[in-house]
Structures are given as C-alpha cells and as structure tokens.
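Typical record was shown:
=====
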Amino acid sequence: MLERMMGTGWKRQGPAMLVGAGHGATHWIIATFYVLLPFISKELDLSYTQAGGIISLFHGASFIANIGSGAVVDISGRRVLVQAAAISIGAVSLAAIGFAENALWLLAPVIVMGITNNLWHPAAISYLSRKYPDRRGLALSIHTLGASFGDIIAPLIAGSLLLTMSWQNTAMLNAIPLFVVAAILLTSLQEIEIPSKKHHETVPKLSYLSGVTTLLRNRPLMGLCVMSGFRAMTQNGLLLFLPLYLVGTLEASPFMLGVALMVFQVGGIFAGPMAGAWSDRIGRQPVILAGLIATPILVFGLTFIDTMIPFIVLVALLGFALFSLRPVIHSWVMDLVDDDMSGTAISLLFSSQSAFTFAVPIVGGMIADAWGLKVVFYLLTLTTIIATIIAACLPKRQL
C-alpha cells in the first residue's frame, strides 16, 4: 500500500523510513523526560511553576537553536551529518539527566536537549522534501510517523523501568539506543548530491540573506508560522500537563502514565500518513482545518472526566486529531518556498513554534498552582481556537 501511495519502490522509500526512525529518536528523548518529570518533581519537591519553568527553558533553547540551524543546513548542505549530530548530542544530554542531584543540575541537559531537538528538523524535513518532491506530504508523514513511534515506545519503556529503578537510571538506560540510531543514519543515508561549485554560487552569504528577506516577506508563510505557533502551544502544553494531571489528580501509576501517553500518540500513526496523502490530493488547508476544529472540543472535554479509562479514550481521540496535522503543516511550508531556502523555512516555522510555546509551561504552571490543572486545559482550548481562525483566513491556493 505504501509503495502504491508513494509511487516508488521499496528501495527508494528506504531513506524516508530511516529519517523517520531518526525523528523517532529525537522524540524518544523529550518523551522520556516528560515521563520522568512528575517523579523528578516529587523527589525534588518542585511546584508546577518550577516544573513548567524547566520546560520553558527547553523551548527557549529550541528557539535560539532554530535561529541558526536553518542557515547551517542550507549553506553547508550537510543534512545527514546534522541529523546524526542532533541525535548523538541529544542522547548525551538525556544520559546526563541521570546524574542530576537537584533542579539546578537539570538545567544544562535540558538546554542541550532543546537545542538538539530542533537542530534536527531543518536538516531532516528539507532532506525529505528534496528527495520526494512529488510525494512530499506522504514522505513527511512518514517522518512524523517516526516521531509518533518514538513518543509511543519511550513512555512505555520509561514507565516500565520506573517500576523497578530510579528516574536517574531510567534516563541513562533510555539514552543507549539513540547512539545506535545515529550511527545507522550516518552510515546508511547519502547526502543529496549538490556540486560544490554550483552550491556556493547558489547560496553565498549575500544571496542567502536576500533569501531570508524574501521568506520574511512571504505573508502566507508568516501566517502559517503564526497559526502553527498557536497550535504548538496546545500540543506542547498537553505534553507537559497531561502527565502532571494523570499523576497528581488521577493518581496514575508509572505504567498507566506510559499507557496514556502511548495512546495519545497512537492516533498519529494512523492519521499522519492518511492526512499527508490526502493533503497531496485535495490541498493542505482543508485537512488542517478538519483537525483543528476537532482539537479544542476534545481538549475542553478532558475537563469533564475524572476517571482513568474514559480519560485515556478521549486522550487517544485528541492525539488522532492533533498529531495528524504535523506532516501537512510541514508540507505546506515546503510548498511555499524554494528548495535552496527549505531548511531556513523549516527553521523559521519551528522558531515560531518555540517562541509561542515558551511561556505556556511556566504560565500554565502558575495557573495550575493558583487554580488547578483543569484551568490550564481551558487555556489550551483557547490557543487551538485561535489557530483554527488563523488557518481559515490563510490563502486557499498553494503557492
């Protein structure tokens, strides 16, 4: 089925699957940390505001990294090397969390995690966009499919390990597979050939700066970045506050926490490829609007459920709507820009997401400390409603 949808043989699909596996590795890192955070917070006696502040630091570091990561990718053309480096350095940062004895010791690894998490995207997404120009939506859906697998497997393994060992040992053990994935990418993927002379003629410093100016004047692209920023506020807010709510309010065990975060991502496995392929046929905007309209209804619905199983079912439906949109948004960005600036365009998109998301963890933590975690879900409902309105106002035609 995948072969028929992509219009290529299995040999050509291999790079997409390898890059998808690498994306799963980057999500494995932060998904593991989200599972560990409630237990870190209990042992170190952190408030919701302090726990949120740590995640805000992660997004702040991501924002700073995004400013330069797209330029590194577009000017150097070393997309595979950047991908492998992002995973390897991220693995080191996850392992370093295992040596933390207080909250202050967590800060440096979290900053490095934030940098490497978004160092990945400009290299990987622009690589796939060049590799599969006619099947971009589906290729990028395989990329996000890998992320979903990382987000699914990491919580389950981390939650299971927490039943028998400390969060420190869990962090170090979960870092080991990441080095293997980085080595496989570096030895199996080939850089997309760009003759050195031609490349330097295409992207010299002055030409690159001119290209950045053109991107910033691209109003549909800017609108899409803002819309994605509000959507990212909802997604990343949920990734932080769902575990805290499950452990602190519903008193979930580590294993049930892992199950809940797993089902949150399962929907993306089915919805992502369907949404990506569908958007290749009917356009990006209708698919994005369908998912965005469903999301605030489901987020708001979480506030009415206080028992575990119904809550997990609603979380699964929410993941189906929310995570189906990632490959479609990435594809829409690639539709709007030239290949030579594709890395920078993705960097701009993720910079916007990090900038918008930066305040959510700490503000949400302050709200949770003052009025309870349910009020945070009202805030996340509002951010998705705003994203839906912006998406509806974007130009209907793809440029």
Summary: The chain has one domain: 12-393.
